[in-house]
Specification:
This protein is mainly α. Helices cover 54% and strands 4% of the residues. The protein contains 10 helices and 3 strands, in the order ααααααααααβββ. A 3-stranded antiparallel beta sheet has the order 1-2-3, with helices on one face. β2 and β3 form a beta hairpin. The chain is elongated. The chain starts with a helix and ends with a strand.
């Protein structure tokens, strides 16, 4: 089986085509919300404020420790949920997902949004959004006196008291960002599962595919064993000589008899054996030629009393 046969064996039709457009609509709504939330949070609208609010309640490390470590030239690592990396990363994957949604819509309209392409795209998106979830819910163990073994406080705790009122709105935005990240990851996982389900060949397709392969093999087999047929022969042996009216006329003009097997005529008009009448020649010894053209027909003078038309 060649490469073309392998690609031809991959299913190109969705088993659940009615779910594609509703999934596109749901994805568009969630991605617009995610892009808005991630864009508002960049570069540092509320990340440091939430970090500082948690340190005041003893829920995580203090952001001032980073400044003290830099001032004293001490190596320190910024906790992942409070780093600038995760903020920029969320914006990048939100823009990428929205761009891929546009591409998916165009491919679906042009009927080239195959399950295999969908599986590859959404597998990558699931990996990216799973990374974002891990980073947003990563622990903060940089301060041994105030460890944070689980997710940040704005995810595990309420945004009400004892949180200050000026921070409650930012807390809700951070919760919303984490929620849309989880929703998009789950949605892309649904895409991937539907794609994988459509890639599994059904029994009727497997049978039709096997029967088509057998048919192609049977069609190609006689051609491999074919031989060139022998040329036609006469009953007495030998090849057939094609005879046309024009050939008969020119044979007659050249002094030969048109009918085989009844003798030949020499140049002096004397025939041997049984043949037709000799040609009538003029005083110069040449056969007189009477040329007549009528509606494309040509008439030549043959033997005496006989005209040959070609």
């Amino acid at each position: 089986m060649g490469i073309k046969d392998c690609f031809a064996a991959i299913p190109r039709k969705w088993k659940t085509p009615r779910l594609i457009i509703p999934l596109f609509i749901i994805e568009l709504i969630i991605e617009i919300a995610a892009l808005a939330l991630f864009g508002i949070a960049q570069p540092d609208l509320y990340r440091t404020r939430l970090w500082k609010e948690g340190s005041e309640h003893g829920w995580n490390s203090n952001p001032n420790e980073i400044i003290y470590a830099y001032a004293n030239y001490k190596p320190i690592h910024t906790p992942l949920p409070w780093s600038q990396f995760i903020t920029n990363f969320n914006v990048v994957i939100a823009v990428l997902a929205l761009f891929l949604l546009l591409c998916k819509g165009i491919m679906y309209i042009t009927h080239i949004f195959y399950p295999l392409i969908s599986a590859l795209i959404h597998a990558a998106l699931v990996a990216l959004y799973a990374t974002s979830i891990h980073a947003q819910a990563a622990p903060d163990m940089s301060d041994p006196s105030h460890p944070q073994p689980g997710a940040p406080w704005y995810i595990t705790k309420s945004c009400g008291a004892p949180v200050r009122p000026s921070v409650r709105g930012y807390c809700q935005q951070a919760k919303g960002s984490f929620a849309v990240t989880v929703m998009l990851c789950a949605l892309f996982l649904v895409y991937f599962l539907l794609s994988a389900y459509s890639l599994v060949p059904s029994r009727p397709r497997s049978r039709s595919r096997s029967s088509s392969v057998d048919t192609e093999a049977q069609e190609q087999k006689p051609w491999e064993m074919a031989q060139v047929p022998p040329p036609p022969t006469t009953p007495g042996g030998g090849l057939k000589s094609p005879m046309t009216p024009r050939t008969t006329a020119f044979n007659t003009l050249s002094g030969k008899l048109a009918t085989p097997g009844k003798g030949k005529s020499n140049g002096n008009g004397k025939g041997k054996g049984k043949g037709k009448e000799p040609l009538a020649r003029g005083p110069d010894g040449k056969v007189p030629l009477r040329h007549h053209i009528s509606m494309g027909d040509e008439t030549y003078q043959g033997p005496v009393g006989e005209a040959v038309r070609i």
